[in-house]
């Protein structure tokens, strides 16, 4: 039987459907000079790390492929900057291709204000869990802001997905009150959008901020009780702890629901309202300038949910990477396809929308 396999397999492969290259309509708007601004999601951060493989799996790169564009990424050398969960080795932020000019200028950890002002040597009140000068230097080059890098590419098309970090980490720390105030968020976002428009961007898409309380990295106390890592103060409590806090808990040193790091039910709702406020501001800015808004929640709602029986390889299922915060390869593929459909509808482009 084994001797037949070498003969049969080529025949089966020949019978398999072949997906032909996509040819845009002659009358379609050319999709060219595209830049992507944002944070770790747009940069391709997964499983707590940034690698060349995860960068190439990011939605801006995949969107470019759907347009037939070469979208080089600022690929870092192995094992990563930093290495992802489960990968050993020292952090390495050196580029695989020094001097590469990437249209994807997103920097992990960036807030809205950082897009305007932060560089590898300049930052205001940096949070050590968000700001990494080495990442700024690798992705943007020396003394360059994300906005300046984007405008230097002379873009015609641009996507902006920024604002997640303005609320996510404070929520995971149980302190949504420390999120970026709404008035500052809106002021910075308006400056960003106006700078892009005056800088020559003709087709701009703003992307909403997802509900940060939906990330698997925000863990309900009821689950932590099963693991024995919370004390009796959590009995009957509807509360949550972020993975940044849970990581240091143990049965001998359990978490207390009297701790300020606890996200109470009231604070849970507060975090959701902050996101709603940010998204209302984004939509208002867009309406004033007649810019389309891409609702990321519509994509997130189509993704597979959490598994009933988690595995070590995919503890949060197929939609999230191992850190429970950043989307998986599958999610990035869905975002790229949905954005291709959106661009075609909004701007008359003819990007490949096949699954």
Task: Characterise this structure.
- The chain has one domain (29-212, 278-347): Rossmann fold (3-Layer(aba) Sandwich), CATH 3.40.50.1110.
- It contains 14 helices and seven strands.
- The chain has helices at 5-15, 40-43, 52-56, 59-66, 112-117, 133-140, 146-152, 168-172, 182-198, 221-227, 243-246, 265-289, 296-300, 329-347; strands at residues 34-38, 157-161, 203-207, 218-220, 239-242, 263-264, 293-294.
- The chain has a four-stranded parallel sheet, with helices on both faces. A three-stranded antiparallel sheet has the order 4-5-6.
- The protein is globular and about 65 Å long.
What string gives the helices and strands in order? HEHHHHHHEHHEEHEHEHEHH
The CATH class is Alpha Beta
Mind telling me the CATH superfamily name?
A: SGNH hydrolase
Within the largest sheet, what's the order of strands?
1-2-3-7
Keywords: Signal
Pfam family, one: Lipase_GDSL
GO molecular function: hydrolase activity, acting on ester bonds
Protein name: Lysophospholipase L1-like esterase
């Amino acid at each position: 039987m084994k001797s037949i396999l070498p003969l049969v397999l080529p025949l089966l492969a020949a019978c398999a459907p072949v997906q032909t290259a996509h040819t845009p309509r002659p009358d379609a708007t050319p999709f060219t000079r595209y830049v992507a601004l944002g944070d770790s999601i747009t940069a391709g951060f997964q499983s707590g790390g940034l690698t060349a493989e995860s960068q190439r799996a990011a939605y801006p790169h995949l969107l470019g492929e759907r347009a037939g564009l070469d979208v080089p990424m600022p690929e870092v050398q192995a094992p990563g900057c930093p290495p992802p969960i489960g990968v050993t080795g020292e952090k390495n932020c050196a580029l695989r291709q020094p001097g590469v000019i990437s249209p994807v200028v997103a920097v992990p950890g960036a807030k809205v204000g950082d897009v305007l002002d932060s560089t590898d040597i300049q930052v205001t009140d940096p949070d050590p869990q968000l700001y990494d000068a080495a990442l700024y230097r690798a992705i943007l080059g020396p003394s360059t802001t994300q906005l300046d890098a984007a405008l230097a590419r002379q873009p015609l098309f641009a996507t902006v997905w920024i604002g997640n970090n303005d609320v996510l980490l404070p929520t995971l720390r149980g302190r949504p009150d420390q999120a970026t105030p709404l008035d500052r968020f809106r002021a910075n976002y308006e400056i960003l959008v106006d700078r892009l428009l005056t800088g020559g961007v003709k087709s701009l898409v703003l992307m909403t901020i997802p509900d940060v309380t939906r990330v698997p990295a925000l863990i309900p106390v009821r689950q932590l009780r099963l693991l024995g890592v919370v004390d009796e103060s959590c009995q009957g409590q509807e509360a949550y702890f972020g993975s940044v806090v849970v990581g240091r808990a143990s049965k001998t040193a359990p978490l207390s629901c009297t701790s300020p790091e606890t996200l109470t039910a009231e604070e849970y709702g507060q975090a959701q309202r902050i996101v709603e406020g940010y998204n209302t501001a984004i939509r208002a800015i867009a309406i004033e300038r007649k810019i389309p808004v891409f609702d990321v929640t519509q994509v997130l709602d189509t993704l597979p949910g959490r598994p009933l029986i988690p595995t070590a390889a995919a503890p949060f299922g197929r939609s999230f990477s191992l850190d429970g915060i950043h989307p998986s390869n599958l999610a990035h593929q869905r975002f790229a396809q949905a954005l291709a459909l959106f661009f075609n509808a909004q701007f008359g482009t003819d990007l490949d929308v096949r699954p």
